[in-house]
Amino acid sequence: MSYKKIKNMTAAILLGCAVLSQSCTSWLDITPEAQVNDKKIFSTPQGFKDVLNGIYITASGEKLYANNLLFGFTDVLAQYYAIPDETHEFAQLAKYQYKDVNISPKIDEMWLGVYFCLSHCYNHTNILLERLEEVGPDFFEDERTYYILHGEARALRAFFHFDLLRLFAPSYKADPGYTAIPYITKYSNKVSPQKTVSEVIDSVIVDLKAAVTDLEGRDPIFDPLYQATTGSDMYMWTQPMPDRNEFLSYRGFRLNYYAVNALLARVYAYKLDKKQAYDYAKIVLESGVFKFTDYWKITSDIQYRNRILRPEIVFGFNVPRMTKMFEPYSPSYSSSKKWLTIKNSEQMFEGSANDYRLNYLMEHEILAAFDRPSCIKFVKPENADEMTEEEMGRIAPMIRISEMYYYVCEYLMDSDLNGAKTELQKLRNAKEALIANSPAELEDVIVNDARREFMCEGQLFYFYKRLGRKVVDESGNYTMTEKDFVLPLPDVELEFGNRLSELYK
């Protein structure tokens, strides 16, 4: 498959419709076709594949995981950026003014966008799961295809619900009994009841464990041929073979077996079950599939640099226009009015002048007037060739192996502080000594490393929230309240869904 095809991939998204179809010849070559009914689209194995592909494509849109839930909305909440003035589109969001006229629509977009993936139209997880269970494994060319479809669909359902929970409800640590969001498992016009934070997490775990069972031993990741042709790079099929099914390729862009285990680690960590988080994180780290990026690839000239550390990504969405979406926010493009520069970088990297994330993943020379660097993970270098840019610039990272190391360290630090420090040192690969004489001090180190690691990837806000850490502004005098960690439910959801919003009465 050519990179041109990947680059030109499009999707037809129709909100509020009764039917939608997206037909494709392969996972990365999508062409919208005419609307068809439920019966027709699920009349062939290819139809099931098309629907699953459509879910991934919907989620990778600008209003969800290619902007708002990546470098945009959630990273503003984490106070990564120095907002230049009050006219900036994120000025009020940085102050947690969720009811602001410019911010409230963005919140509605995220809620509706995620639930679109779950329960609106025909390209959603629940309809797919219902139809899969109706036809059974014998409907497909081999039973492996059925179980991969089923496993990924259940994992996606869990993934979407968990992120909604992390946005629209207090953390498990703050209030496990809080009336949170519904967990939708059936396609229906009826209003689904809200569940507590604890109940939603339990439902997420059930879905993810079922997905693990479906994918274990069946995911192409376990296939020696797949491993031989991709190496540690699951975002490429370096030697396409005529007898291979492209639907089973590019596993880094799918919720593969190890990505589901990584999600279980994330969920258990959120539930404060350090042992379970450790166990699932170790499955990922000990798989041998994911590697630290070669140092020479990080330090190469900018046009060849692996800016997103691709071998370390366990799962990411495919976004062919990723660099284009980031363009207005990068100071590299001087005409922009949306610049997002990194604040507190000196404090973030204090004592770590040789950290590659400081020296090679950030730009330090563009905005001298602000005296602040900017993140270049999604910036297209001026002289980058097409192949390099397609390889490095089209992935929206969702899960990294670094996150797995954090969970390992968090579990070990209570009983084996030196062992925890050793694990974190593997991740940091730092020259400087890691100073931490207590679990509390090591947690501080982990949190600060996460600040360096998750720039422009949307995960730091959730990291703070899970641990109950305070977020302060650049002057250090603004402390978030419990309410600031919880987005308000959309008004339409409160009115027509008869929802409770305990923090926004």
CATH architecture: Alpha Horseshoe
The count of helical stretches stands at 21
Main beta sheet:
2 strands, antiparallel
DSSP summary, beta strand count: 10
Distance between the termini: 53 Å
Please report which band the strand proportion falls in: under 5%, 5-15%, 15-25%, 25-35%, 35-45% or over 45%.
5-15%
* Cα gyration radius (Å): 22 Å
- The structural domain count equals 1
CATH class: Mainly Alpha
Which percent range fits the helix content? 40-55%
Q: What is the 3D form?
A: globular
Query: Strands of the biggest beta sheet: in what spatial order?
Result: 1-2
The overall pLDDT, averaged over residues, is 81
| CATH fold-level topology | Serine Threonine Protein Phosphatase 5, Tetratricopeptide repeat
Low-confidence region ranges: 1-36, 237-242
What would you call the structural class? mainly alpha
Spell out the key features of this protein.
505 residues; mainly alpha; Serine Threonine Protein Phosphatase 5, Tetratricopeptide repeat; two-stranded antiparallel ribbon; two-stranded antiparallel sheet; globular; disordered N terminus
